[in-house]
Amino acid sequence: MDFVIQLIxxxxxxxxxxxxxxxxxKCILPASFGGFMGWGVYLLLFxxxxxxxxxxxxxxxxxxxxxxxxxxxxxxxxGTVFLIPSLIPLFPGSLLYYTVSAAAVxxxxxxxxxxxxxxYFTLGIACGASIVPALFASFAEIRKKTQKNS
Amino acid sequence: MKKxxxxxxxxxxxxxxxxxxxxxxxxxxxxETLRRLGRAYGAExxxxxxxxxxxxxxMKFEGEMYTQTRSLKIPTSTDFRKIAHLNALSRRxxxxxxxxxxxxxxxxxIKAIKKSSLRVFPGGAVAAGAFAMFFGGTPADALxxxxxxxxxxxxxxxxxxxxxxxxxxxxxxxxxxxxxxxAVSLLLPGLMADKIIIGVIMLLVxxxxxxxxxxxxxxxxxxxxxxxxxxxxxxxGAMAAGYLLALNIF
Lengths: 150, 250
Description:
The structure holds 2 protein chains of 2 kinds. In chain A, 85% of the residues lie in helices and 0% in strands. Chain A is mostly helical. The radius of gyration of chain A is 17 Å and the shape is globular. The termini of chain A are far apart. By secondary structure, chain B is mainly α. Helix content of chain B is 72%, strand content 9%. Classes of the chains: A mainly alpha, B mainly alpha. The interface between A and B is large, with 49 and 57 residues.
């Protein structure tokens, strides 16, 4: 039940960000769906495949990155329009909060463990999400070069 | 005549670059867009140097070199609609050569796009509420988070215009929302203050900055990536300081 609520609210949360950031009408639903999908992939990898948080967030973000690149081609709109709102549910707001609340009561052990988890999680998202657009950019470059040569 | 033509064209091209960064586009996109525009208008040589706070370009049109710079120390406000329109405009130029005046008119049209309050405020409220529940809050928590989401949006719309940087805005937003939420949950004991704060935190998390920083680095713009990363870490620090202060006061 928790998972169902999380998936629904991930969709709504991304939708809220898409509105806040003025995403074009027809791109709002795909951008929101990306948030749902990213969290779905993360839940599968973390809870079913029992991956550590870094790999789970890395692959979840990479799937979102791929989704954004596909949407970019379908809707002829920059991929970033889909990528950024879709990634938001993955960002570890709760880890960040518990890092701060531990610091507030001088519980350094909890602060360190929560803080490190926040860093790993964020690193995973950032790497996963940027690797796919970078690969696409490289492929585009290769295609341009081969076209010039022929 | 020729010189005037290219000077006014070049001015508009750089203004497009400035508008892209001001709307929250990545450096790589801005760089590519300026190059694309330069080549579309027949530049024989295109040099673009852009980082998050400055833009300079030199292009050679019909044997003559043109150089201009722009300071990008300007308030940025993420607007994906603007980015999409600017991108479409630059692609259109590769197919049909708009005159400098027409290009400028198109840019002015895009610059006039405003983020409607009817989207920004409900968007922030819905996002904060949804994330309060996402992280385990009850519907009542979500409702309170949504109300404080409106407060954050109000501060964002008004403070970012007068604050010299986003740090101060982030700190004030974190402190006021933290104090408010803790006060409300003292009055209404059924609420989970931590879940409400987490919902609101999601509005302030520099997720976009960190993602863009990683992408800049991977695409070879190391300076820009480092700048953005440091900025995002400072913003996260300002937010943490705001909530820390609020938690310590209570």
